[in-house]
Amino acid sequence: MAKDKEHEGKFELSRRDFLKAGAAAAVVGATGADMVVTASRAVAADVAATYTTTCPYCSAQCGQKVDVDASGNVLDIYGDPINPTSRGGLCSKGAGSFQLVNNARRLGVPEHTAAVDTFDFTGDTGGNASGVAWKRTGNEAWAPMGLDTAFTEIATSLTAIRGTVTPGSTAASNARTVMFFGSSHMNLEPNYIYRKLIAEFGTSQVEHQARI
After folding, report:
1. β 206-208/74-79 pair status
2. 66 and which of 17, 32, 51, 175 could share a cystine (Cβ 3.0–4.6 Å)?
3. Region 64-79: what's the mean pLDDT?
């Protein structure tokens, strides 16, 4: 009676039950338990061509299929079921890569002018990435700025902060006063170029946004 009380509520597995469970697991493994592959959401009549590619994010390079219409517009991006690595599966970022192309909230703005001092992030801005949103220090309102202007301002400001660097000189610059942040939205190629830029700038102070 005391022994029964001692083992009451405890999980016990006999050798016979263990062997049964192992045999059952082997059968399941032999039959295969493949994931369900999601087919294209595009209307078949609208699909003019389907391209095979790989996901642009991490180094796993999972296979993707891209359906486009006759004008080359992307209709859907989904997992490639015959890819030997991913077999049609995609993580949340890979499955959402369609939004890289067709999200209605992608910024589409003209060159910045003094007359433009507000920006509405909630509306449909046209679906093209021709600009960025920016704000000056001092908690001013967000405003749109064209990419050419944004790149020029960024380059000019970073150069001014770093100061003049003479090759081979041991004179200290201000490179360490700047810290760079990575982005989980960036994929392999942009990350590679971005890291080279940081090294050329002369600092090792870089951190990923996910750890902030």
Report:
1. unpaired
2. 51
3. 92
Cα gap 100→127, rounded to integer Å: 10
The tokens 């990923």 sit on which residue?
A: 208
Give the C-alpha separation, 181 to 212, whole Å. 9
The pLDDT-based confidence of 118 (bands split at 50, 70, 90) is very low
Type of residue at 189: E
Integer CA distances (angstroms), 81 to 35, 64, 97, 103, in order: 10, 8, 17, 25
The secondary structure element, H or E, covering residue 151 is helix 147-162
The encoded tokens of residue 208 equal 């990923």
**% of the chain residues with pLDDT over 70:** 60
Q: Please, what are the domains in the chain? A: 44-102 (3.30.200.210), 105-162 (no CATH), 166-212 (no CATH)
What digits encode the pLDDT tens for the residues 28-50?
Answer: 555 554 555 566 767 777 899 99
Cα 18 to chain centroid distance, Å, stands at 43
**Planar angle of CA 77, 78, 81, nearest 5 degrees:** 145
- First-residue to last-residue Cα distance in the chain: 57
User: Distance (Å, rounded) from C-alpha 166 to C-alpha 177?
Assistant: 18
| pLDDT (mean) for 145-171 | 76
Task: Please tell me whether the overall predicted TM-score, pTM, comes out greater than 0.90 for this model.
Answer: no
Tokens describing residue 25: 């697991």
C-alpha span between 67 and 41 (Å, rounded) = 9
